[in-house]
Amino acid sequence: MYVPSLYDLLTGIWSTDEQKHCPIVLGVSCWLVWRNWPTMWARSEGAQTSAAGWPVVVVGLLLYIVGRSQEILMFEVGSLIWLLIGILLLMRGGATTAKEEPRWTPRITFANLVAEIIHEDLKRAERYELVKKHGYKLMDYNG
Question: SS3 for the chain, per residue?
Answer without folding.
Answer: CCHHHHHHHHHCHHHCHHHCCHHHHHHHHHHHHHHHHHHHHHHCCCCCCCCCHHHHHHHHHHHHHHHHHHCCHHHHHHHHHHHHHHHHHHHHCCCCCCCCCCCCCCCCCHHHHHHHHHHHHHHHHHHHHHHHHCCCCCCCCCC
